[in-house]
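Posted in: Structural Biology > Protein-Ligand Complexes

Title: Requesting predicted complex, manganese (II) ion in pocket

I'd be grateful if someone could produce the 3D structure tokens for the following input. Sequence and ligand are given below.
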Amino acid sequence: MLGMAAAVERIERAVAANEPILLYGDYDVDGTTAVVLLKTAIEMLGGAVRFHVPHRIREGYGMQSSVLEAAYADGVRLVITVDTGMRAFAEAETARRLGLDLIITDHHLLDANERVPQALSILNPNQPGCGYPEKSLCGAAIALKLAQALLERRDPTRLKEKILPSFLKMAAIATIADAVPLRGENRTIAALGLRELRRPMGVGLRALFAAAALDPASKQLTGFDVAFRLAPRINAAGRMDVASDVIELFTTRDLGRAQELAAKLERLNLERRDTEAFVLKTIEERLATEEGLAAEPMLVLDGDGWHRGVIGILASRVVERTAKPAIVICVEEGVAHGSGRSVHGFPLLEAIETCSDLFTRFGGHAFAVGFALPAAALPELKQRLRCYAAERLAAREPERLLQIHAELPLDRITPVLAGWLRKLEPLGHGNPEPIFVARNARLMAPVRVMKERHVALSLTQATSATGAHSGNIGVMRAVGWDMAFRAVELGLSEGSRIDLAYRIRENDHPDYGGIEVEIAGIEPAA
Ligand SMILES: [Mn+2]
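-- Reply #1 --
Done. Output follows.
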């Protein structure tokens, strides 16, 4: 990897001279696990490491010159970034002016001019001239490469047998949580790391698994478990409080402290869920009651006091519900912070770029953006975005796009097939779980609604054209998370016939365990 030799040489020099090293991270799963990896590796070499992870709300994403200045005043002469820094031109200039050596390790893409900041060394497979074949590593995986290079010369056997397996656990969690495509080297990192998680591990991971009610020693962890059960708990720290708790959790050797921190993450995650549910309810009420709002081609929703840590998740929820691009904005102390998510065919970054004169800060890509602007400019922003969206989206019906992989009637689902599907793990971005479609399935019982939001259907496959089912009257249980509204929309009842998009699930509940399906979409049978 381009820049590796220079980075290793400089870090070794700092370790030999006992210079304090500052790791500059990020507040999400990728950024915090990357700090843990590199901190552990440099400490193994005998180095003195401190770290800084920005506060999501007070500091926002990326490096800050003031943090570099404080570190310099405190005796730091070497700063290593993880999962950040690729566009920190001004901060790199500050470092140079102070006489701080800067090593940037990051996976984020370069700006349009392919400029890179001035630094002693940059590790990023996406920079010009880097021949490293896997271009889509996450930040923690690049930190893993650096850790590997640092430790390789010391004790290659110990590295291979002891250290790498433990580092891979962290790198796998980050690789899945950061949504890099699970192909190539990423698939290897994710698969090996998930396998390693079955073995004994540090007190921090153990406490986190216990809090999430996961037991990787008895049941193989999946990509889904990491993405939907571990990652939200780890991310809750940075969303609702301070991300440095995550680093302490994963580096402490004190079981009591680990349990305390895991319990805190659990509490923050519940708080995050409540906050999210509360605002989502407000948004749904607004969509139902505000004149003309639900008919708008793009939804721009703002509220006073909405929690900034969850506006991105909320924008995703609104897109899921409405199949329209959505921006959620919170106003705090005269500043409006926005986060947007989009649908296919409406590049959101292009949309907000037409308002770039209003923003104090903005960035993102076709499907996701973030920005800030003075609250006073909000009416102007909403007006301009409304016009822009009206021109481009007005004539278009919102489409709920679901990629279907194969047709599979419900009576063809077998344990053998489920076993084959398990071999595709780890599933996630770039290696999505197969979605099947079954046509003309019949409800054998009334719709069962769970917690007012979810549904369970008892389905049988009606195979003949007239709708009479074949000899095999097997009943398949189908669960639809957040599908209660859809069941009402379609007026489903016993005897209804539906076309069903679904994923195959193995439920290990002792009483009603077995193969069932999870509903991805329902349409009335054609
Ligand atoms: Mn990242």
